[in-house]
Amino acid sequence: MQIRTVGTSALLIEVDDPLAWFAALDAERAAGRLDVTDIVPGARTVLLDGVASVTSLAATLRDRPPPAPTFVADDDLDIPVTFDGPDLGGVAAHVGLSTEAVVEALTSATFRVAFGGFAPGFAYLSGLPWSVPRLDSPRPRVPAGSVALAAEFAGIYPTASPGGWQLVGRTDTVLFDIDRTPPALLTPGRTVRFVAVA
Asked: Cβ(119)–Cβ(110) under 8 Å?
């Protein structure tokens, strides 16, 4: 584990299993044994923000054994997807399968929300059966609800934005709603499955 201070009240820890660390630290916070404002997992890091004493917490974390691999318990979520994205054929060619086999693989996979991304409601979903390259040139506008693949992750664009991921489908599922608690539908640790619709 590498521990770095971020400003005067945050720590960034680099770990092998960020989601396991997130789950363990979040449980400690919920039990009142960890005084932090926010815990944010990343691809290889966990940020602890609003730390009362970064020196004390850093010392505690250095002495702590790694948590057992685990995931945050939460409701499973099925997301209906129409698999008609403009890059579906290119993804199929890249992985050496038919488009039907790609859809079958995506709907058979169990994804896990690894961490949040570049926009409110965007989540990086681990569990993709292959690695898929980003587009050589990003699109200036990707429609909201686009289901996309890049590297070892799947994701869904919560709002229209530029983007360089491979678009394989679309969904009407609302990923971010300020009036919902929590506002983001896809929270770290949540299990997600894609369900093909016509």
From this structure: no
